[in-house]
Structure formats: structure tokens, C-alpha cells
Amino acid sequence: MNLLLLEPADFISESVVRISGRRHRQLLDVIRATPGKICRAGLLNGKTGTAEITVITPEMTELSVTLSGNPPPKLSVTLIAALPRPKTFLKVLHTATVMGVERMIFLECWKVDKSYWSTPLIKPESIRENLLLALEQAGDTVPPPVEFRRRFRPFVEDELPGIASGTLALAGHPTAPEEMPHHLSGPVTLLVGPEGGFTDYEIGLLERNGVRPVSFGRRIMRTEFAVTALLARME
Q1: What domains can be seen in the chain, in order of their start residue?
Q2: Helix, strand, coil proportions of the chain in percent (round to 5)?
């Protein structure tokens, strides 16, 4: 836990919080915190600062909180990814959040197995839990919106032009003749297909709607590695 992430319901006064559950257990059992210890803290969707432990028992922790700083800036990227297998989805969600992606959209396309859409890991409660863990690791307080789209063509034709307007729109694709550019400035809309890439029809539809296919090399990567590599290339 690099950041103790607090929520409004934790506050028992203007500057004092009381926590229990996972966060309390981590302070008690993992960090072995004692009264007087100061840790980094932040309010969900708000400021960052510090929290000093005043009381810690087997059941709860009370802390005195001072929040005056800003969370780290976001990476000006909208990530649109073909929905991967469930465990990979969690890895992509975590990585993209830690790296500061502003918005995530997971999309159905031809190579996405229909069973992926029935996993409980894409339900709101699971997504929220995993976003909070990623924010704690990154020292951030602002979770990115996470959205899903089931119909590829209507999304690309009706929504994508508006999402990508004013951005550099790129699609990672193993056979693209153009290489992924380095150190991009300005907002980016980044599309990542399933392992093996988009189909010819899908990449053609993306191109007709203003997206440039780019390659990170001829080697086929797992989705979580491709996302990490592409985002790192942009930074």
C-alpha cells in the first residue's frame, strides 16, 4: 500500500478517519504500524497528503489526516482494448490504472470469446475493488472510467470518431507497416486488439474512421504485455 486511500464515509470528524477491514489489516499485520506512524494518504477523487495513526486496535485504526496536495497527473490516453480473458482483463485494468490512463473502454470484436462477457470479474463491484488497489499502488486518488461495448461496427462508426476527435488515434496491429511512434505529445486514443491483432475487416473499418494502424514489431504479445509496452512507448 503506497497510499492509504480514504473515502468520505471513513471520516468521523473533519480531520479524523476510522478504518477497518482490508486497509486496517494491512496497517496492522503487514506494515505492523503503531501509534505515531505517518503514512501517505489520499481521499478518493480528491487531495493527497499524510495520515498519522493515533489509535490502532485489532478491530480498527484511527488516523489524523492532512490533505493538501494533488494526485499525479493522468496520461492523456483513452485506451480501447478488445476484451481479453478474465484474468488478463484484471492485469490490463491494473496496469492501465497504475500508468495513469484517463479512460478505458473494453470492446467486443471477432476474436473475443463470448464467454468472457459472463465473468463476474467485469461486474462493477469487482472493477471498483481492483481500481482501488491499483490507485493505492500508484499513489493516485482518481479512478478512470471503465466502460464496455458489445457491438464493434456501431461503436467504430458512431462513437469512435467523437472519442478520437482532437487526439492522435492509433491501433496496435502486428502487421501494420508503420512503426509505433515514440514520446508522443498531446492526447492519444489507443486501440489494442486481441492477441494476434484485429481481423482485416476490423482494421480496415478502423482506418476508414481515422485510426492509424501501427506496429510494435512482428512478435505477438499477450494483451497485458502489449498494453504495457505501447503505453510505455508513449511516455
Answers
A1: 4-69 (2.40.240.20), 75-234 (3.40.1280.10)
A2: 35, 30, 35
**Residues constituting the chain:** 235
What nine digits make up the cell of 179? 512503426
C-alpha cell at 64: 489524523
Distance, CA of 82 to CA of 171 (rounded, Å)? 11
Taking only the tens place, the pLDDT of each residue in 171-198 is: 988 888 888 877 777 899 999 998 778 9
Give the list of residues 6+ apart from residue 164 with CB closer than 8 angstroms, or none: 78, 189, 210, 211
The residues, any chain, with a CB within 8 Å of residue 215's CB and separated by 6 or more, are: 172, 173, 174, 175, 176, 177, 178, 179, 180
Tell me how far the alpha carbon of residue 126 is from its chain's centroid: 13
Task: Answer yes or no: are the C-beta atoms of 227 and 96 closer than 8 Å.
Answer: yes
Distance between CA atoms of residues 65 and 131, nearest Å: 22
Decide: 193 and 207 in contact? Cβ < 8 Å.
no
Report phi then psi at 86, rounded to 5: -55, -50
pLDDT above 90 for 232: no
CA 101/CA 95 separation, integer angstroms: 9
16 vs 12: CA distance, rounded Å = 6
Q: How far apart are CA 89 and CA 229, in angstroms?
A: 16
**What integer pLDDT is reported at residue 1 of this predicted model?**
65
